[in-house]
Design a protein that fits this description.
The chain is mainly alpha-helical. The protein is built from 13 helices and six strands. The N terminus is likely disordered.
Length: about 575
């Protein structure tokens, strides 16, 4: 019997090998039917509905790919053996929110990267903003994932609308009743907000760059492996370049690292803002010169102005709040530094452990922030909306149109100052600049004209002569519009005020512009202000409303930063 078994084994092995080979062929056959080697439909098959082709890795689309057979069961494609091409060599970071009631930038800083996709604007406060930007830039956003993002946005907008409506309905109610009714709404919205934030985290994970065969990479990001270069809080960088680099590492970690809670991600963004802004003067502690100061508040990365002369109890609460946040951010930075050389799983475990340890302390400082809000709301002479500009509606409309034309002029000139971004691959045409982003650059022009950016003639999109001619033509048209407004304003002053009014036309225009800017700031900061300062909202409601406030500011989206 043993002899029979031993003689049968040589025949069984080829049969098993043949069966496995047939099974492999059956698994591969459906894919082979639907596409050619170049990733196109086979001659006998029509394209899917809508013209979309099956999504396959780029390295499987080469019709000249050769296969190397190792045995009857396996083969290796030469192109598969290459490192997969990154989905995008450009990363888009969200704009930095300005402090409450501060000037809103109209144009982004000069940049050499491609303009941000306009579809990113509704997501400036979301944790998946950079990953979505990379997907959009590389044109690799599957329909199913796009549908989930749209559904997420719809759910978020619905929550924001409900919250705004209730706040508006309670604007004339006394503070205690308003807080009680807002608490009831918070209890109703809490499960939906929790689900929304969980969806955002899942989208952040699902939007990560794809690796070989569509499998997600472990720890993607433009600064892969750069966390090791972080300084500890006790040995903070001193050089400006090192500070900016560490701020970039912190901001990248906020969007990239696994294991962080949403509150920790926002704290890291706040820490990056503080580093870049040199926020040492705003740290807790006694001030050499008492006066108003800007502090990092809640929800992060909101910043508010604390008035001078606070009563001692409220001033102490502010300092304790800032100390608690600083300690949390210091721990975060130190853990990121210590785990910089660790593998992704070890780093994730360390960050998850830190998130669990910090969660009660984060909840505690949110309670401290609520007490500070109540104290600030009780201060005498609270800030209110500014009075509207005292000019006829026709003149107001003309001045507003003039200002819009002025900004359009700056954007149009800025478009000719920036050279087209370099192509991502040899022979590839540079991407087309979007008309609505052609002004991503000269904020200083809108103020004192003290921009230090040097523009070389070779970087112009047009010739120097053409640039000068068009500049003179546009400025002349703008000057004619301004002269007409001045004449109408002078006629209005003569008809209404008479010779007793000593203000010049320049003074009147300056007063109008000042009043208009205050009114515009008040209107655009409304959601930001409510999220940061109105007592009675939950932490989740504040985050949702603050994101709406960021979108309402309509901040210019920064250009992409090349990482290759």
């Amino acid at each position: 019997m043993k002899m029979v078994e031993s003689t049968a084994q040589p025949h069984a092995r080829p049969r098993r090998t043949l069966v496995l080979a047939l099974l492999s062929a059956l698994v591969a056959e459906p894919q082979a039917r639907g596409q050619t080697a170049a990733g196109e439909p086979s001659p006998g098959q029509s394209a899917p509905q809508g013209g979309a082709l099956p999504e396959i890795p780029w390295y499987a689309r080469d019709r000249f790919d050769r296969a190397r057979f190792m045995n009857e069961l396996s083969s290796s494609h030469f192109l598969y053996s290459r490192n997969p091409r990154p989905e995008s060599a450009v990363i888009f970071l969200p704009p930095v929110p300005p402090p409450l009631e501060s000037e809103i930038p109209l144009l982004a800083p000069l940049g050499s990267g491609p303009p941000a996709p306009p579809e990113l604007a509704p997501f400036v406060g979301d944790v998946f903003y950079p990953l979505l930007g990379s997907r959009l830039a590389s044109d690799n956003l599957p329909k199913s994932l796009r549908a989930r993002i749209v559904a997420y946005l719809d759910a978020k907008v619905a929550l924001q609308g409900e919250l705004r409506s209730r706040i508006l309905a309670l604007k004339d109610v006394d503070s205690k009743s308003r807080e009680r009714q807002l608490a009831d709404l918070a209890a109703l919205q809490a499960p939906r907000i929790a689900e929304l934030e969980s969806t955002a985290e899942q989208l952040r994970s699902d939007l990560r760059p794809n690796g070989v065969f569509g499998v997600q990479t472990e720890n993607p990001g433009p600064d892969e492996g750069s966390a090791w270069s972080m300084h500890s809080v006790r040995n903070a960088p001193a050089a400006a370049a090192d500070v900016r680099r560490e701020a970039g590492v912190l901001r990248g970690a906020a969007f990239r690292e696994e294991g962080l809670s949403l509150s920790q991600r926002r704290l890291l963004c706040e820490a990056a803002v503080e580093l870049e802004a040199g926020a040492g003067a705003d740290r807790p502690g006694p001030q050499a010169v008492p006066g108003p100061r800007t502090i990092a508040f809640s929800p992060e990365p909101a910043r508010i102005l604390i008035p001078a002369g606070l009563e001692p109890g409220l001033a102490r609460e502010v300092d304790e709040f800032l100390s608690a946040k600083s300690a949390l951010k210091a721990e975060l930075r130190d853990v990121l530094r210590r785990t910089g050389d660790s593998n992704p799983e070890a780093r994730r475990t360390a960050l998850e452990k830190l998130a669990a340890a910090q969660a009660p302390r984060i909840a505690a400082y949110e309670e401290m922030a609520e007490e500070i809000r109540r104290g600030l709301a009780a201060l005498p002479n609270p800030q209110g909306p500014p009075p509207p500009p005292a000019l006829p509606a026709e003149l107001t409309a003309r001045i507003s149109a003039y200002r819009t034309h002025k900004v359009e002029l700056l954007r149009r000139l800025r478009a000719m100052l920036a050279a087209p971004p370099p192509a991502s691959e040899p022979g590839q045409a540079p991407p087309e600049t979007r008309p609505d982003d052609i002004g991503a650059g000269a904020q200083a022009w809108l103020h004192d004209g003290a921009s230090t950016t040097e523009v070389q003639p070779s970087s112009l999109r047009v010739s120097v002569a053409e640039f000068g001619r068009l500049q003179d033509e546009l400025i002349s048209a703008l000057n004619r519009e301004e002269a007409g407004i001045r004449e109408s304003l002078a006629a209005y002053v003569r008809a209404s005020n008479g010779p007793s009014d000593r203000k010049s036309i320049n003074d009147l225009l300056r007063d109008f512009e000042t009043a208009r800017q205050k009114q515009e700031l008040w209107d655009r900061f409304q959601d930001y202000r409510t999220a940061a300062l109105m007592p009675g909202l939950s932490a989740g409601q504040r985050r949702v409303l603050f994101d709406a406030g960021l979108e309402r500011l309509d901040l210019p989206l920064p250009d992409g930063e090349r990482t290759d």
